[in-house]
Amino acid sequence: MRTTHLGAAHVRPGRVTAWVPSDRCAKALGVSPPDERPVTVDQRQHLLAASGSPRPDPAEAPWIGLSGRLVPGAEDAVPAALASFFDRHESLRCDYERLGGEFFRRLLAPGEVEFVALPLGDDLAAAEAHDCLVEHLTASAQPHVWPRAGFVTVESEDSLTLFAAFDHVTFDLVSMHAALDELPLLHAAYARGDGPGPVPAAPPSHLDHAAGEQARLAGLTAEDPRMDVWREVAQAGDAAGLPLSSGVSRGGRWGHELVSMPLATPGETAELDELAGRWGTDLETVLIALMLRAIADQEGPGPYELAGLLKVPGRPPEHARSVGWYAAVVPLLLTVDPTAELRTVCRQVVAARDRSAHGAIPTPLVHRLLPDLREPSLVLGFVDHRRSPAEGWMLNESRALLGRVPADDQMHAWITCLPKGTVFEARHPAIPACSAWVATLTVTMRRALLAELAASEVLQPQ
Questions:
Q1: How many Å apart are CA 312 and CA 285, to the nearest integer?
Q2: How far is residue 220's CA from residue 229's CA, in Å, rounded to a whole number?
Q3: How far apart are the C-alpha atoms of 153 and 290, rounded to whole Å?
Q4: Which residues pair with 70 in a beta bridge?
Q5: How far apart are CA 186 and CA 179, in angstroms?
């Protein structure tokens, strides 16, 4: 399952229904007591930036969403499943109110969540249905509108498909994959008439994670040793922009293109994982090293100095199925020789990552402590979903969806390992030079991966 934008081809013709909180639910939220746990640094900045914003442009609505088929003919189960989903995750039941420059939460109690139908069209063509649901999702998945999420079903003769979109303040990519599994399970249970079970045990709350973050960052100053690596990023200058061969100049503003390209089959991924183990490292390190060396290869024959950001696990292991925004990035500073052996680059990645591990500080706080910092344009990541329920995703026609981000010069590139293979995905400035650069990156990585596996096969006894 690859990540895409929501296109007209993803939507069938039929009856379109939005599912919105009831008036009773909205009133209950308004009198809900404040919750003592704080918002995270990223949430505060996100809410602050959204204060007073006009109605969003659909071309710049960076929500995180999903779609999947539900049990046909069981539409009454949709509001029950959504309410149960909210009951299980505190972060979805939060409202945020501003007091001066700070925000506090109101937390709706379990059992108070209620969704009702809002008809959007009875017999719409596919293009009309697409436009209709995109408009609703864009207006609903906003940081200043509870529930900061939108839900729409499209019912045709033989199918019932749920489309959902969430604002980043309460959701991230791992949350999306958890929801892809949980929502169809809840809906199927209610469609059978046997209530909310059986479902997995409710995971820990993101709100507890937020309280832990506040304790971890208390008293942080610009002179703190955890800021050392960020100071180096602030001094990186042009090295913190995208590579010259990308055609993207530092500080420019472009719309973005989202691409997903195959990188390795399941068998090749397993072989590379085994090779990583023999090298004393892991699959993530090898794949990040492949990406970095491919980037350096396009910059010319000499070593390439890179100053970027690396996404790292922001959630504790026990929060793996939690819904919330667990943001964590660290600086990645290293010099990569495109002719170096992959194993050598792996060691460099490990050293750079270990050195930056204590620098996992929310970037809004970093910017407050280092006002002159220009955030790097290249953000790298890795997602491992090889053990995800691939059969269920295929049966439900599950999709991972992203809204469109505002124009800037930043590129997010990540490698996703799925049961059906490994893909290279990127959201990059939509200019021809950068599109060609990203495509070449994929080809270079693919060739290098095959070469490593071939060399490893020669060296290993049959």
A1: 12
A2: 14
A3: 41
A4: 160
A5: 10
Please tell me the pTM assigned to this model.
0.91
Classify each residue of 390-427 as buried b or exposed e, where b means 16 or more C-beta atoms within 10 Å of its C-beta. Answer: beebeebebbbbbbbbeebbbbbbbbbbbbbbbbbbbb
User: What SS3 state is found at 149?
Assistant: strand
Q: Which two tokens stand for residue 449?
A: 């991966």
Q: Are 3 and 418 in contact (CB under 8 A)?
A: no
Instruction: Give the lowest-confidence range in 286-290, 368-372, 419-423, 455-459.
Output: 455-459
Please report, for residues 3, 264, 331, 420, 446, the alpha-carbon distance to residue 270 in angstroms, rounded to integers and kept in the order given: 22, 9, 29, 11, 15
C-alpha to C-alpha distance for 404 and 310, rounded to whole angstroms:
21
In the numeric block, which tokens belong to residue 218?
């208390």
pLDDT by residue (tens digit) across 426-452? 999 999 999 999 999 999 999 999 999
Indicate if the alpha-carbon torsion angle 118, 121, 122, 126 is positive or negative: negative
Number of H helices, E strands in the chain: 13, 16
The Cα–Cα gap between 71 and 62 comes to: 29
CA distance 116 to 173: 27
pLDDT (0 to 100) of residue 147: 95
Strand pairing category for 304-311 and 14-21: unpaired
Distance CA(97)–CA(79), nearest Å, equals 26
Alpha-carbon distance 380 to 377, whole Å?
Answer: 10
Share of the chain above pLDDT 70, in %: 95
The identity of residue 206, as a single letter, is H
Residue 151 above 90 pLDDT? yes
CA 391 from chain center: how many Å? 22
Q: Checking DSSP bridges between strand 61-70 and strand 399-404, what pairing results, if any?
A: antiparallel
> Cβ(256)–Cβ(427) under 8 Å?
yes
Is the CB of residue 257 less than 8 Å from the CB of residue 428? yes
How far, in Å, CA of 456 to CA of 343, rounded?
Answer: 12
